[in-house]
Amino acid sequence: MTRSKRRASRRPSTLCESTAADPLRRPTFALTSSCTRVYSLSDAGLLGSSLIPSTFTPKITVHATYPSFGNVQPGSTYAVSETQDEPTVSFNAPAGQPEAKYTVVLADPDAPSREDPKWGPYMHFALADVVPGQAAGTTLVGYMGPAPPQGTGPHRYVFLVYAQPVDRTPELGRDAEDRPKFDVAKFAKDNELDLVGATFYYAENK
After folding, report:
1. pTM (global) more than 0.70
2. Which of 24, 73, 147, 164 is the most exposed place for a label (fewest CB within 10 A)?
3. Do 40 and 20 contact (CB within 8 A), yes or no?
4. pLDDT digits (tens, 9 = 90+) for 5-26
């Protein structure tokens, strides 16, 4: 577990920020769903990583559903064999934004291992122009199921949902089959994407 450094000069303004800044600080009352997800991401070392900025606050709840077992439970571990079929990613658009478009990314930051992530983030899936309940989207990178090398420990597979500009489709900036070392942060910046939701699971090849 990684522990982010707290800035002495800045007092967290919300419970989500305080728990994300210090994963060892456990609140004494129930967290909201949004805060629970932030805490889960922080606990997994994803908040403040190459995939998710430390300032991230979810605006939507992301559901990823695999045909073999159903909904992904954030932070749960699934067999590699259970995650080979393309999942369905669903979420509701924020109130007042029924025509908004979204981009979905699935990436593994732990390739080939969490100790030596020289190939990460590894792009497993990218879908653009998604309109919840209206348009399934345009495939940018076809789905590739998890394939962690044997003995490299648990890998984190992270679904990221971004609000995208409504007037254009995001561009990868590279060949769709060039999956290793995909700079997700640069992709988001270049295409003016705003991260609004995330979830993740573990898979391991023992």
Report:
1. yes
2. 24
3. no
4. 333 333 333 435 443 444 444 3
